[in-house]
Design goal:
Blueprint lengths: L4 E6 L6 E3 L5 E3 L3 H6 L4 H4 L1 E6 L10 H13 L4 E5 L5 H11 L6 E4 L12 H13 L1 H5 L1 H4 L2 E4 L2 E4 L4 E2 L8 E2 L7 E4 L2 E4 L6 H10 L10 E5 L7 H8 L8 E6 L7 H13 L2 E5 L17 H6 L3 E2 L5 H13 L4 H9 L3
Parallel strand pairs: 1-4, 1-5, 5-6, 6-7, 13-14, 14-15, 15-16
Antiparallel strand pairs: 2-3, 7-8, 8-11, 9-10, 11-12
Helix pairs in contact: 3-4, 4-12, 8-13, 9-10
Length: 339
């Protein structure tokens, strides 16, 4: 029986570190090193290993992920596994999900424990990712599942997964939806299929997006008694400090401090400004509360409602929309599908 062909693309991150002379962990391992550390891989798949970069995910760029998506589209394989750092996996995985619409599984994985520690999780996560990419149920439902993240024997939808702890080995979760599948022994146990309507809407609007000009998006966190001084600085600058859009991590179901509301309304007139829940997820309110900083007033004033998207993912989506040249009505349509 022919084994599935799995292409492993390595970007760097904790999974690919090794100690320097002083004992500090540095980027250095490539895809071949990662594969060699898991001899079992050859029993379940034909592995092709490719080192894309040796960069920590905290230093990755939108341009690099667009280039990675182009590379993935060009591959002839039965499944793709991307290894990277955990710092931005929730963002890069979501961006890949927006850019890729493939009939084969695409899995992103990483490690929380570096290779110098006792029981590093990188080899186990890589093995689990390859098992997922070769699994018959996953391959049958690859398009419906979209890009997946595999960490600690659980499978998550890239659109939903979050890094919920900075250091623990169980740092990833899909707090709104739960995992899509779990790995038990050598099996992938299906649990659910994700709701993909919002991704489908975004892809339809984005079309066959080619990597365009970078479109920086500011991330503005609302908090107790926030006066909005950073927004004032953006509005005062002729070039808006280089930003083309903004995501506002709002309180509760979509509220901002009253003292900052007028400034945020002016920001929305100057550039696309998306409201997203600082709580990290869950559909926003649309028509419950009144008052100048309520969801009713903010929506009426022109702020774009980001729905259940975490602010980090809302920023990824807005940057992708702007890079693709979408106008304001199209951007509103894309985000409306998330609420």
């Amino acid at each position: 029986m022919t084994k599935p062909r799995i292409h492993v693309l390595a970007l760097g991150g904790t999974i690919a570190t090794r100690p320097d002379a002083a004992g500090a962990m540095q980027m250095g391992l490539g895809a071949d090193d990662l594969v060699a550390a898991v001899p079992t891989l050859g029993k379940i798949a034909e592995i092709e290993a490719e080192t894309v970069s040796r960069v920590g995910s905290h230093s990755l760029s939108f341009d690099q992920i667009h280039a990675l998506a182009s590379r993935i589209r060009a591959l002839e394989a039965d499944g793709i596994v991307v290894t990277q750092g955990t710092d931005t996996l929730e963002e890069t995985g979501f961006l890949l999900d927006l850019l890729l619409d493939l009939d084969v599984p695409v899995v992103v994985t990483a490690a929380m424990r570096n290779p110098a520690l006792t029981s590093p999780d990188g080899p186990g996560n890589l093995l689990a990712a390859v098992r997922v990419a070769t699994d018959p149920w996953v391959r049958t439902h690859a398009k419906a599942l979209g890009v997946m993240a595999v960490m600690l024997d659980e499978v998550y939808a890239a659109a939903d997964v979050l890094k919920v702890h900075p250091t623990r080995i169980n740092a990833f979760a899909s707090t709104q939806t739960g995992p899509l599948a779990a790995l038990v022994e050598d099996r992938v146990v299906p649990l659910s299929l994700p709701v993909r309507d919002a991704i489908v809407t975004a892809r339809r609007r984005l079309g066959n997006t080619v990597p365009g000009k970078a479109s920086p998006v500011a991330l503005l966190w609302m908090a107790l008694d926030e006066p909005g001084g950073l927004v004032e600085a953006m509005l005062a600058a002729p070039d808006r400090l280089g930003y083309r859009g903004a995501v506002i991590a709002a309180m509760g179901g979509g509220h901002t401090p009253e003292r900052a509301t007028d400034i945020l309304v002016r920001l929305a007139a100057a550039m696309p400004a998306v409201v997203s829940p600082r709580a990290g997820g869950g559909p926003l309110l649309e028509k419950t509360y009144g008052g100048p900083s309520s969801e009713i007033a903010l929506r009426k004033a022109g702020l774009i409602w980001g729905g259940r998207l975490h602010p980090l993912k809302a920023r990824v989506l807005l940057e992708t929309c702007l890079r693709a040249g979408l106008d304001r009505p199209a951007i509103i349509d894309v985000f409306a599908a998330w609420n």
